[in-house]
Amino acid sequence: MERTSINAVQRPDVNGGDDGTCTQWRNWSGFWLLGLCNNFAYVVMLSAAHDILQKQQSQNATASTSATMAVEFQGGNSSNSSRYDCNPVSTAAVLLADILPTLVIKLSAPFVIHKLPYGFRVLFCAVMAATSFLLVSFSSAVWMSILGVIFASIGAGLGELSFLSLTVYFSRDVLGAWGSGTGGAGVAGALIYSGLTQVGLSPRVTLLIMLVIPFAMLLSYFFLLVLPHSLPQWRDREAEYTAVVSEDRQALMDGSEEEEEQENSIPAEDRTSGPLTCTEKLHVIKSLLRFVLPLGLVYFAEYFINQGLMELLYFPKLFLSHAEQYRWYQTLYQVGVLVSRSSLCCVKIRNLWALSLLQVVNAVLLLFAVRFLFLPSVWLVFAIVIYEGLLGGAAYVNTFYFISKETGDRHREFAMAAASVGDSLGIAVAGLIAFPVNRYFCSL
């Protein structure tokens, strides 16, 4: 990595001039848009998949409605005899189909992804997002829409671990921008898609309009970000390795004297050049467990609520229908996520286990609420759902902030990618457990 390029390009906060301020804002905006685009395609594609499947008039009602229950619940099955207004298949079934491709990518890619330069990764993610839009838009069968879900999942998973790794080449405040952008994707995706279809555009036309999102991802990366010359975009990383100067990288990450002193205390083996060995990667993974385990627990409790319990929290004597109540649960949850993922510039929380335990308390409370139906009002559920989103978003951004801060230079890029498996693993386990729990309640 070239020392001059680090100082000249990646330290806008240290330079302090107009060019430095402009560079800082371009990088912050670029990562915000990358976060938005990376998750936006997935959110919008799921909503559109439901509308397309409805038009197909599939005889298998379970398959056609479950394709997007993770985003929009369509009311209960009036023919069942359950005390709950249940659908035949839990939303957890769709959750598993959505998350498993991402989980496979996050488990395997960190060990080999360094061989693929960032430029190719971004192009691949944009192609995956565009393909998912086109497949769902022109789908004529259920399998085509499901394939669209898979492509979106692969693109979002690879994009998340790649862009998190990319943040190590910039000042640490871009982590807050990335987190805020991913939080905004849930709210913006649902609102924009609903708005365009509400004014009369067909789901197919709306999806084709959304092809601007992958294009915006490419613009954000290749034209908005001020990329350092040392960043390997089109060539193999291993061919470009040179000695990395610890003082320069730390000044890049943060200009404070306190963190410079902390960086200087990193052992010499962390400052050596060359690609990480397999043994080193396993050692890094072991050191990441203190971050990955609480993050996984937060997301396990969070998605156990969202996919196993939310559709059962129905208040029949209300001006909102069951479908409308569920949509509001999802919307308010996304608002909470957006607020907390944008909070890194204001507050930082080091005790990640506290966030995990608070989220588990939420899950237990709502589990008992579903079983014994003791919650008096939907407004109380609304408040709990917002709180749930706040905890989940805070756990996400603070996890990666402290990984970036406390990991040595040599290991930081790999650590950011490897730790991204935590949330997906928690979501997958939540889906596995939420499915039989939902079936149990619907059988009562």
Fold blueprint:
Layout: H1 3-9, H2 12-15, H3 18-56, H4 61-66, H5 91-108, H6 118-137, H7 142-166, H8 174-198, H9 203-209, H10 212-224, H11 246-253, H12 257-264, H13 278-309, H14 322-341, H15 352-372, H16 378-406, H17 409-419, H18 421-442
Describe it for me?
By secondary structure, the chain is mainly α. The chain has one domain (3-442): Growth Hormone, Chain: A (Up-down Bundle), CATH 1.20.1250. It contains 18 helices and no strands. The chain has helices at 3-9, 12-15, 18-56, 61-66, 91-108, 118-137, 142-166, 174-198, 203-209, 212-224, 246-253, 257-264, 278-309, 322-341, 352-372, 378-406, 409-419, 421-442. The protein is globular. The chain starts with a helix and ends with a helix. Mean pLDDT is 80; it is low at 1-16, 57-79, 241-248 and 259-272. It is a multi-pass membrane protein. The chain crosses the membrane at residues 31-49, 118-136, 142-163, 175-193, 205-227, 351-374, 380-402, 414-435. One of its GO terms (cellular component) is endomembrane system.
CATH class descriptor: Mainly Alpha
Number of domains: 1
Helix content: over 70%
- Mean pLDDT across residues: 80
Supply the number of helical segments.
18
Strand content: under 5%
Which stretches are low in confidence, meaning pLDDT under 50 for 5 or more residues running? 1-16, 57-79, 241-248, 259-272
Query: In the CATH hierarchy, what is the architecture at level 2?
Result: Up-down Bundle
Enter the CATH topology name.
Growth Hormone, Chain: A
